[in-house]
Amino acid sequence: MYLSNESILVILFVGLIAGWLAGKIVRGTGFGLIGDILIGIAGALVASYLFPKLGLHLGVGLVSEIIYSAIGAVLLLLIVRLVRTGGRF
């Protein structure tokens, strides 16, 4: 698989937006700029694996990728919050 410079920038952009959205939705668990990008990218991976298995399709394009990634990042942040607080929100 070959990634061009533009595709890497798009992945980072989507990860940044998704991580920022997830940080706003799940308050108190922001990890800074780099952490938000990493959570957003990890959320995109989780969402790209989980949503097709569940049969969920929100559309096509960049906006749907941001939504998928944000939902996946929110799930990851909730799991991190559960682990950090010992099972309490």
Report on the structure:
The protein has 89 residues and is mainly alpha-helical. It has one domain. The protein contains three helices and no strands. It is globular and about 40 Å long. The mean pLDDT is 77.
Keywords:
89 residues, mainly alpha, 76% helix
Strands, helices and their partners?
Elements: H1 5-25, H2 32-54, H3 62-85
Helix pairs in contact: 1-2, 1-3, 2-3
Average pLDDT works out at 77
Give the proportion of residues in helices: over 70%
Number of strands: 0
Instruction: Give the biggest beta sheet.
Output: none
Strand content: under 5%
- Indicate how many domains the architecture comprises: 1
The radius of gyration is 13 Å
In short:
This protein is mainly α and about 90 residues long.
